[in-house]
Amino acid sequence: MPAAAGYAALVIGIIDIIRGVFPHFRRSRVSVIAGLLPGTVTTLAAAASLLVGVLLVMLAHALRRRKVRAWRAVIVLLPLGAVVEALRWRHPAHAVVGLLLFAVLLVNRREFHALSDPRSRWRALWIFLALAALDLGIGWMIVSVHPATIVGDPSPGERLQHVLLGLFGMEGPVQYSLDRTADLVYFSLAGLGALTAITTLYLALRPERPVAALSAEDEHRVRALLDRHGAKDSLGYFALRRDKSAIFSPSGKAVIAYRVVAGVALASGDPIGDVEAWPGAIKRFMEEVRRHAWVPAVIGCSETGGEVWAREAGLCALEIGDEAVVDVGGFTLEGRAMRNVRQMVNRTERAGYKCVVRRVRDLGEDEKEQIRAAAGFWRGAETERGFSMALGRFGDPSDGDCVVVTAHKSGEDGRGLPGGDIRAVLHFVPWGAGGISLDLMRRDRDADPGLNELLIVKTLQAAPLLGVTRVSLNFAMFRSALARGERLGAGPVLRAWRGVLVFLSRWFQIESLYKFNAKFRPFWEPRFLLYPTARDLPRIGISALQAEAFLAAGVPKPSWPRRRRRPGSTPSGTAPPPGPVPISP
Questions:
Q1: Burial grade of 495 (CB within 10 A; 0-12, 13-18, 19 or more)
Q2: β-strands 403-409, 353-359: how paired?
Q3: pLDDT beyond 80 at 74
Q4: What are the tens digits of pLDDT across the range 449-472?
Q5: Whose CB has fewer CB within 10 Å in the chain, the N or C terminal residue?
Q6: H/E/C letters for each residue in 319-347?
Q7: Chain centre distance of CA 284
Q8: What is the rounded CA–CA span in Å between residue 435 and residue 468?
Q9: How confident is the model over 345-394, as pLDDT tens digits?
Q10: Which pLDDT score, from 0 to 100, does residue 572 have?
Q11: pTM, entire model
Q12: CA-CA distance, 411 to 569, in Å (whole number)?
């Protein structure tokens, strides 16, 4: 029923739009057939027909998503249209069809249960009132700006009445001697009314986007699960981003971290906790998704997690890349395969760079602020990126087990830069008791080439002293396609797909990340995207790019000169910490 109602509204809306845009269509035989459909009864003029068509197209998507507010709007419009048409006695079939659809939707009211953003209700009301006041002021100016063509001397009340009727697409009492002026006033007022109606309806029916926030209690519970089961997934610690929400299984032994972006509930990585409790957490997550009519998606889960998601939630899987994991015990700079990395590291060290590897808890507050300021300065005006594989903060007291690696240039005083003599920073988050996962890699753009290679090599060499046996590096998108596409005997389809990925690498660093990771001879762990249907993939892809900050949904921020942050502040683009969370040692 929701799908049928949505597609019916879509067809009716398209017909109304065509009738509004092409006047000759209103006199055709198709127009007579379209006149028997509900929704066209509100067409009082060409502008009104266009407006009704746009509104119905907007309602169609909301009806398909089972939005209860869309159902309420249709339930009000159908009997109202039937009554109006019955009084006019132009097409009695209008009233019959409208009342039949009204009865069908009323009987199936339980099918429309999806909630909208509770905040949008009041926002839609206030925006409507503000736009209505603005429309009256602008409409008064539009009606009165052509005094030479106004017939007679209409009173202020008549002018106001003309504005109010014009906003609804109807003619008012004010007459103009020129048809061109009358049409200009009419369509200008109708356009203002359409803009107000569309804006209000969008705010009332838009997908819910709750304020994602990890409460102190939820963070404490997630950390407890990570202490027991954090070694299973290298992305587990990123669930502690404070702009994510958490859904726990009924037993509390598993949790799913997610964020809602443009109506898509994006979960990242595998569920955290006992594998036997994963189905319970997935069930709770899917119940929440259905309650709000979100589109479920999982980014970057492992093969084991993908199998559980596919079995319990009925989702489809798509391999989107591989995670580079280096075994510390087997890493060495010796051998021909590591010659390029070895030479680059030696050349960078001879240039005067040295690296320091420490736990974050071993840093002083001044050092934390210096590193934070340097990383922010190197980022410049760019947005802080990351969602599924980024923590979004540095130096928080609760993240003492994180590892930070800094590169310093000897013989330089820092040239007045915020980071002093720091030229590059790596930040790793814990991966269970014996692993770390790369969170942040940032360096001075004026630094010598090979500095990132030096940082990673020094991290791997110092890892045994920190009790680390495995290190997760960057995620390589579509790594297998890039690797197979350049091999001898690759087919034309695979080579074409590799060519597309190389072309996209100009903006998204797909090929460069793969080649950089491959230098350290890692083993590759495949990562998957879980999605409901293929038609949801474009929407999920756009939402994922927004979550990772590759696409900005808002107005671009101006590139003002960056100011030095106060100690204890967080970098731009990160959520402020809600306060230290008590953690057992």
A1: middle
A2: antiparallel
A3: no
A4: 888 889 999 999 999 999 999 999
A5: C
A6: EEEEEEEEEHHHCCCCCHHHHHHHHHHHH
A7: 22
A8: 5
A9: 899 888 888 899 999 998 888 888 888 888 888 876 566 667 778 888 88
A10: 35
A11: 0.67
A12: 30
As given in the structure block, the two tokens for residue 38 are 């509900």
* Amino acid symbol at 524: W
Q: Interior CA angle at 541 toward 539 and 544, to 5°?
A: 110
Cross-strand partners of 247: 256
Distances (CA, A) of 6 to 57, 101, 150: 8, 12, 44
Three-state SS across 509-521? Answer: CHHHHHHHHHCCC
Structure-token pair, residue 54: 């746009």
User: According to the model, what pLDDT value does residue 262 have?
Assistant: 78
Q: Which residues contact 529 (CB under 8 A, 6 or more apart)?
A: 297, 298, 299, 300, 317, 318, 319, 320, 540
Does residue 563 register a pLDDT over 60?
A: no
- Residue in the structure block whose two tokens are 């009084």: 87
- The highest-confidence range among 309-318, 442-451, 565-574, by mean pLDDT, is 309-318
Please report which confidence band the pLDDT of residue 108 belongs to, taking 50, 70 and 90 as the band edges: confident
Please tell me what DSSP assigns to residue 157. Answer: H
- Is residue 174 left, alpha or beta, with left meaning phi > 0 and alpha meaning psi from -120 to 50? beta
Please compute Rg for the chain using Cα positions.
Answer: 30
Residues 6+ apart with CB under 8 A from 398: 219, 223, 577, 580, 581, 583
pLDDT beyond 80 at 47 = no
**Separation between Cα atoms, residue 562 and residue 548, nearest integer Å:** 22
